[in-house]
Amino acid sequence: MDLLRELEQYVPWNGQEARDREEFLRRLRAGGDLYARENPAAHLTVSAWMVSADRRQVLMAYHNLYGSWAWLGGHADGERDLLSAALREVREESGLERVRPVSEDIYSLEILAVNGHEKRGQYVPSHLHLNVTYLLEADPAEPVHCKPDENSRVGWFSPEEAVAASSEPWFQERIYKKLNAKLAGFF
Predict the structure, then answer these.
(1) Beta 151-157 vs 58-63: how paired, if at all?
(2) What is the CATH number of domain 3-186?
């Protein structure tokens, strides 16, 4: 299914998701390549709320760019199958090999403002990440490792500890707590 149809069928969890969904739809219908990060104003990204099968643990990575523990994910980079992009990002950032979707449906939507920053010696101007989140699972007993050019640590936390580990208040209050609240429907 293409993203436009998925978003049209997606039932928002709260007001933030409802408003963000409308903006996703507006931008997709207007055209322009949102799948490539070369779009300077806004482009698609994917994230994974990576949980254990019993939903008692969440995998986070300490992202060097933001200086905070955070969910795993990255840019779509031209990939139109966003679930595949999320699976790829988790494997790259954590070293996990056996990652599977809890559901193939979109788990959450967010539009995230990214401040201008330096990345690999190049200035990246401020822009928006049109972020699609998927609920994925893996076995916490499987070994993990960091991806040194992006993160310096990877580890499992209880859902509450995952929220507390982040040093970004917006993500704690508006994103990670929401993702944990939604987990109740997946036990």
Answers:
(1) antiparallel
(2) 3.90.79.10
